[in-house]
Amino acid sequence: MTSLQPALPDHIKKLSDDDVHRLIAESRTKLGSQCVILGHHYQRDEVIRHADHTGDSLKLARIARDLPGTPNIIFCGVHFMAETADILTSPQQQVSLPDLEAGCEMADMAETWDVDAAWHEALAAGAGKIVPVTYINSKASLKAFVGDHGGTICTSGNAREVIDWALVRGEHLFFFPDQHLGRNICKAMGFNPDTDMLLWDPKKPLGGHTPEKIRNTRIWLWQGHCPVHALFTLHQIKKLRVEKPAVKIIVHPECSMEVADAADLSGSTEQIIKAIEASPSGTIWAVGTEKHLVERLAQNNPDKEILSLNPYTCLCGTMNRITARHLAWVLDDLVQGRPLRNQITVDEKTSLSSRVALDRMFNLH
Ligand code: SF4
Question: For the whole model, what pTM was predicted?
Answer without folding.
Answer: 0.95
